[in-house]
Write a structure and sequence with these properties.
CATH topology of the largest domain: Endonuclease III, domain 1
Helix content: 55-70%
Radius of gyration: 18 Å
Largest sheet: none
Number of strands: 0
Mean pLDDT: 93
CATH class of the largest domain: Mainly Alpha
Oligomer: single chain
Shape: elongated
Number of helices: 13
CATH architecture of the largest domain: Orthogonal Bundle
Length: about 210
């Protein structure tokens, strides 16, 4: 077992270890039902795709990304740097997203950023490294680490669905604040990514069963 959250077998191992660490989650897992790992493309293209989708609907992000990936040179950091802002914005990227992806490309080409190495770092260190890049915030870093790098120990505490799911699971009067959820999630380390997947699945199960409006 590599420790990475990169297969169904790895997920089951991490889930078992998570429940041993916090037995309350056995009931959450029973209610949630089965769930799977989700993998996205790693490296420069995977991170650029996450940037592309920020603050957009799934449909809009997919349409823009489809045009972007057909743009010659867009998917490699070296060749992306040869594209003009006008070329990238013509497919639907905003100016801010163009510059964020350019900053990522520059960091990779100049070897200031090693995306392969990040997965070996503790979650907080890996997130801090990504957040050094202008335009990359905690959510972007966490989603990249979870789904593109298969990092096993990331919990996106700013996610509203996770906040609500944890609140429901533990009978809280309201969803926990981000700082409180970060503190709660520390007890699930080093299996926080599995905890996040579990609570996302639990959120869908409870919402669909009870018809909750979100």
């Amino acid at each position: 077992m590599t420790g990475l959250l990169d297969s169904a077998e790895a997920l089951q191992w991490h889930l078992g270890q998570l429940i041993v660490r916090d037995p309350r989650l056995a009931v959450v897992a029973e209610r949630a039902g089965s769930f799977e790992t989700r993998r996205s493309e790693p490296g420069f293209a995977g991170l650029a795709k996450i940037i592309c989708g920020q603050q957009l609907s799934v449909e809009s992000a997919a349409a823009i990304w489809g045009r972007f990936e057909r743009l010659e040179g867009a998917l490699s950091p070296e060749t992306y740097l040869g594209l003009s802002e006008a070329q990238v914005r013509s497919v639907g990227f905003s100016g801010g997203k163009y510059h964020t992806v350019r900053g990522i490309a520059e960091a990779l080409v100049e070897r200031r950023l090693d995306l392969d190495h990040l997965v070996s770092l503790p979650a907080e260190e890996a997130i801090a490294e990504l957040c050094k890049l202008k335009g990359v915030g905690p959510w972007t870093a966490e989603i990249y680490l979870m789904f593109s790098a298969a990092h096993p120990d990331v919990f996106p505490a700013g996610d509203i669905a996770l906040q609500r799911a944890v609140g429901w699971a533990f009978g809280l009067d309201d969803k926990p604040q981000i700082k409180n959820l970060i503190a709660m999630a520390h007890q699930w380390s080093p299996h926080r990514s599995t905890a996040a997947l579990l609570f996302w699945r639990y959120y869908r199960a409870v919402r669909n069963k009870e018809g909750l409006l979100v």
